[in-house]
Amino acid sequence: MTDPHPIDRSLIGTMSDPFDIEVERGAIIKFAKAIGDDNPLYHDVAHARAHGWRDVIAPPTFAVSFLPPREPPWWSSIDRKRILAGEQSFSYVRPIMAGDGLTCRVHFIEVTEKTGRSGKMEFIVQENRGVDRENGELVFSHRRVAVYRAPDNRLPGS
Is the pLDDT score of 5 beyond 80? Predict the structure, then answer.
């Protein structure tokens, strides 16, 4: 019999090892183009500086690209084929901008369960928090919910 709770709840409240991000202008410009956002604050340095920024700023969803180099331990026992993307939210103290040096950590917040028409689901909540390496101040929080479908649930095409 498979474990009805493959997500190790004893790890709730823990966090990943810290990892550093060097925010590059080219990465911001490429990301903005990829999402189809032509706001000049995201690709025109002169425009960004004219509006009080030292360089281009990142679109609000840019933090999705900040991934730890190793997967956090709470993911180790999870079958990736059973994961669905849930909701995401972003909170900023200030915009992320080119030239930032950030230290990030992914925090394991909670797991909740719900049963729907297709069976039992577990909602894994984690939050990536990035702080400015120069002053240690929080810059952003990216909260993400992943939906884990229980092994007895049928996936489309299975």
Answer: no
- Whether 98 is in a domain gets the answer yes
Question: Residue 70 domain-assigned?
Answer: yes
The pLDDT value recorded for residue 1 is 39
DSSP assignment of the chain equals ---S--S-GGGTT-BPPPEEEE--HHHHHHHHHHTT---GGGT-HHHHHHTT-SS-B--TTGGGG---SS--GGGTT--GGGEEEEEEEEEESS--BTT-EEEEEEEEEEEEEEEETTEEEEEEEEEEEEEETTT--EEEEEEEEEEEE-TTSPPTT-
Q: What is the pLDDT of residue 4?
A: 55
Domain hosting residue 96, numbered range:
9-23+65-149
116 domain-assigned: yes
Query: Which is higher by pLDDT, 131 or 82?
Result: 131
How many domains does one find in the chain? 1
